Amino acid sequence: MLTLLFDGIAYGMLLFVLAVGLAVTMGLMNFINLAHGAFAMAGGYATVLLMQHFDLPFLATLPLAFLITAAAGALMERTLYRPMYAKPHLDQVLFSIGLVFMAVAAVDYLLGSQQQFVKLPAFLQGRLDFEAVGIGKYRLFIVVVCALLALALQWVLARTRFGSRLRAAVDDPRVASGLGINVNRVFLLTFAVGSGLAGLGGALGAEVLGLDPTFPLKFMIYFLIVVAVGGTSSVTGPLVAALLLGIADVAGKYYAPKIGAFIVYALMIAILLWRPQGLFVRKGAR
Fold first, then answer.
1. Virtual CA dihedral for 93, 97, 99, 101, nearest 10 degrees?
2. Distance of CA 269 to the CA centre of its chain
3. Kind plus residue range of the DSSP H or E element containing 58
4. Confidence at residue 129, expressed as pLDDT on a 0 to 100 scale
5. Is 153 helix (H, G, I), strand (E, B) or coil?
6. Rounded to whole angstroms, how far apart are CA atoms 96 and 102?
7. Within a 10 A sphere around the Cβ of 94, how many other Cβ atoms?
């Protein structure tokens, strides 16, 4: 039981890192980016290619996966996404869905449709046994890394000048510009960091979740559940939602494999009926 609980927590923490960038763009930037999973897939493939063709160790590829996808996100924000900010949400959804299918087709054509595998270093393989509880070393690593990222994000958004500038730029871009805040630069950096976090999550999750060209389509619904249930105005909401989803998914697939997915969706519906705006909503958030 405790082993399942820990595996669920590890899965949930991984989903949090994968989805938190989407929560930022939807909640703080008011932009629906359903192509978020494509950046996660890019981070996973960046890790695989760096390990296979450049013989880089796994740990060295993680920051590179973040930087590569962050740079790609910054470039796409300047060229493709920025003109869409003022468009209706339906246009944003159709635009980002189109990007997803383009990314899936491009990866399938260039790299093939086969499943990709990541070879973990020896010290991250195997399990640690504590009495009756078996903890996978790599899952423990995921929990530690993702917990540190959650704390860092919360601190940046709540305690730093950049966080206050971001909230001001979202609440009233015109007034923020009048106060000397470069709104375009704030949005560019925010989108880049969100994309980089997705890429890092894809790199961390390649061994756990699997990696193939359909990755953005398979996990899009999970990202949306995390954002919808947790809310989009804080880091705490998506974190709690991801943990609930991870634990429910792992436990459901173990105890009731035939209806495991139903349990997740039933939990989502129950929470949204109770709190339609999500678990955590910042006062005054739009």
1. -170
2. 21
3. helix 58-76
4. 78
5. helix
6. 10
7. 13
How far separated are the first and last CA of the chain, in Å rounded? Answer: 40
Rg (CA), the chain: 19
Alpha carbon distance 171, 241 (integer Å)? 24
- The C-alpha atoms of residue 56 and residue 119 are separated, in whole angstroms, by 11
Residue 274, both tokens: 């109770």
Per-residue confidence at 282, pLDDT binned at 50, 70, 90?
A: low
- Nearest-angstrom CA–CA distance, 28 and 26: 6
Angstrom distance (rounded) from CA 70 to CA 113: 25
- In which element (H, E) is residue 95 found? helix 89-111
What would the two tokens of residue 129 be? 């046994």
pTM of the complete model: 0.91
Give per-residue pLDDT as tens, 79-109. 999 899 889 989 999 999 999 999 999 999 9
Q: Which two tokens stand for residue 6?
A: 């820990």
Task: Please name which of 207, 167, 232 lies closest in space to residue 19, comparing C-alpha atoms.
Answer: 232
Nearest to 232 by CA among 180, 188, 186, 276: 276
DSSP-derived letter for residue 115 is P
Tokens of 198: 């997705």
How far apart (Å, rounded) are the C-alpha atoms in residues 163 and 140? 30
Cβ partners under 8 Å of residue 152, min gap 6: none
| Single-letter residue type at 122 | A
Q: What angle do CA 247, 145, 143 make, to 5 degrees?
A: 25
Residue 198 contacts residue 18 (beta carbons within 8 Å) = yes
Burial class (CB in 10 A: 0-12, 13-18, 19+), 131: exposed
Phi-psi region of 119 (alpha: psi -120 to 50; beta: other; left: phi over 0): beta
Q: Which two tokens stand for residue 220?
A: 């899009």
